Amino acid sequence: MSQPRRVVTDIGPADRAFRGIARGGGTTVLVLMAMVGTFLAYRAWDALHVAGWSFFTVQEWNPDGGRFGIAAIIVGTVLIAVVAVVVALPLAMAGALYISEYSPRWLKQWLVTGVDLMAAIPSVVYGLWGFKFLQWNIVPLSRWLSDWFGWIPLFTVDGVTRHDPLPNGTVFTSSTFIAGLVVALMITPIACSVMREAFGQAPQGEREGAYALGATRWGMIRRVVLPFGRGAVIGGTMLGLGRALGETIAVVLIISPVFIIQPHILQNGTSSVSSLIALRFGESSPFGISALMAAGLALFALTLVVNFLASIIVSRSRSGAVSEV
Amino acid sequence: MRADTSVPATRREVRPGTTVPRLDGPSPVRPRRLTRFRGTDVLALFGALASAGAVTTILWFQLSLFTGALGYVIATWCLFVVIYAVLISFDENRPTVRDRVASVTVHSLGLVVIVVLGLIIGFTVVRGWTALTHANFFAQDMSTTGPLDPLTKGGIAHAIVGTLFEVGIALAISVPLGLLGAVFLHEVPGRFSRSVRTVVEAMTALPDILAGLFIYATLILTFGLGFSGFAAACALSLTALPIIIRAADVVLRLVPGSLKEAAYALGSGQWRTVWHVLLPTARSGLMTAVILGMARAIGETSPVLLTAGATGFMNWNPFSGPMMSLPLFAFISVQSPTDNDVARGFGAAATLVVLVVALFLVARLIGGRQPGEVRGRRHRSK
């Protein structure tokens, strides 16, 4: 048996130099990015070493007093992100379906631009809007929710009984719910554009087939478009979730920080990792910074897992083979 | 060869360069239009809307079950969907009812998204309008202006200059590095570039605040640089770098392989192919990637908050002294108790929105075409 002979070509000095430079650029990027992660881990080590496992169970945040942990702030972060995803998922899905299935053709390009623009608006603008506009307009809704659904532990507000006219609106401001709503609006366009891209690629032949079998438009969407884009729906939502976990400025503007586990989403006061860092970095001792780094590292690990799951789900789905996140 | 701009425009000879035949024309498969409105549909829609509004109004003002305008809208909408479904079910079968209900749900939620976008932009501009109408707002800094001073005094000139410096330096770092990184990922495949791609994808998950915290702990605390525009620019370039690399990587992957193979077949090396075929073909997409990174860098607040410091003074030197930027100015001013400061904050936010919208429109204009699609003179003449 004869093996095919190996073809060796000399690529020449110019191309060798080019490859060297490109490889150098890639290495620089790799080193920079890896440095952030390892440096965070390295600086966080001091605090983690002192706190030990109590880092995950203690609720208060007092690094210089020796008692600090992320139990409360991680729960706050996750609750805000969950509220955000619960609100953003239907909005993003409906937006994506409207753009890809319902909108007239002349409107489509404008809507796509509008949604992309919504993704590009700075988070501080969302924060300002939530802080000065939404906060005061949402209080009646919060009150209504707590009046009628207060028997669900999630919607309980301490010190407020049903139809109690006494408490003024401030009990309901600065809550997980409001912060989650603002973050929901920030992640809606991100999730929406991922979904829209996948929905638009659902094969025309299968759509026509569904219509030919007598399906209504919703029947077609239900049986062709949604199954086709399922990976993108999950992946886009998780991508938004990753973003929601790390959101800082909008959350800082809205919440009032408390360091106890706050499961009542309508009630004033909650906490999140990124807002903790933004509020405490300036007044912290070196050990305090190390503790903040540890909290940041926990957040980074959380977003990393979520994003990796998202990209795996998107790339494994039928529509994800060609689409990009 | 690249297009030679020194050639007078009147000469119409074929210049060396990449040309491709026109491929446009009607695509074979076109979705058919399926919407057709009948008079009864419109009647059902408006009838349901009117009755839902009426019922909610009674519940509201007579029984006062709900509070607030937003609750009113939500209650009306829920009732509307139910009544609409009942109306349709009088003369249609169940799949059709489901279809109609899904249709109004999708339409109204889509409308909510657009309305919210309009509200956010509109609210910011309206609240900032009182500040924006003063010319001094764009010409002065806040060095001699206190919180109680009227809007005719003080402005955001220092924040605009700071933003320009910070974003400029951040782009000067992240654009060459990002494009080089993307070219590396595309042109030098292998185990090493796969691991680089994995790390870059991981870093898009990095919360912005951690980039700021990293720079704060290294440049400021360890190396003693102090709060400065340069530190902020470093933090911004860390957040923009993965975005630019990923966007550019996507665009480069869309360049038709036949173009590159043609270049190789004509005997050009890898370097010449990249410089004369790959990059020019993907130019519009690469510009879009850069502009997206730029829009992100302009609006980032949290890394700047940790690294730039806040000041009311104009600072022309990015390497020393705190430097203000637009998002940070908006963030700080809006928390002030005086109305004038809040108005200034909204003015800065509105300026920011206008900047981002402008950048975005530019990106749309440049990147509106598909990568690899060419227009104008680069088409082969017929």
Question: What's the number of extended β-strand segments of chain A?
Answer: 2
Give the biggest beta sheet of chain B: none
Might you state the CATH topology name of the largest domain in chain B? MetI-like fold
| Helix amount of chain B | 55-70%
**What's the SSE pattern of chain B?**
HHHHHHHHHHHHHH
Give structural notes:
- The complex is a heterodimer of chains A (325) and B (382).
- Chain A contains eleven helices and two strands, in the order αββαααααααααα.
- Chain A has 325 residues and is mostly helical.
- The longest helix of chain A has 40 residues, at 12-51.
- With 382 residues, chain B is an all-alpha fold.
- Chain B has 14 helices and no strands.
- Chain B has helices spanning 39-63, 69-91, 94-132, 136-139, 157-187, 191-203, 208-222, 229-253, 257-265, 270-281, 283-299, 302-307, 326-333, 339-367.
- Chains A and B meet through helix 1, helix 2, helix 3, helix 4 and helix 5 of A and helix 2, helix 3, helix 5, helix 6 and helix 7 of B.
Summarize the structure.
The complex is a heterodimer of chains A (325) and B (382). Chain A is mostly helical and 325 residues long.
Give the key terms:
heterodimer; A: 325 residues; mainly alpha; MetI-like fold; two-stranded antiparallel sheet; 69% helix; disordered C terminus; B: 382 residues; 14 helices; disordered N terminus
How would you summarize the topology of this molecule?
The complex is a heterodimer of chains A (325) and B (382).
Chain A lengths: L11 H40 L9 E2 L4 E2 L2 H32 L2 H16 L2 H27 L26 H25 L3 H9 L4 H12 L1 H17 L2 H6 L18 H8 L5 H31 L9
Antiparallel strand pairs in A: 1-2
Chain B lengths: L38 H25 L5 H23 L2 H39 L3 H4 L17 H31 L3 H13 L4 H15 L6 H25 L3 H9 L4 H12 L1 H17 L2 H6 L18 H8 L5 H29 L15
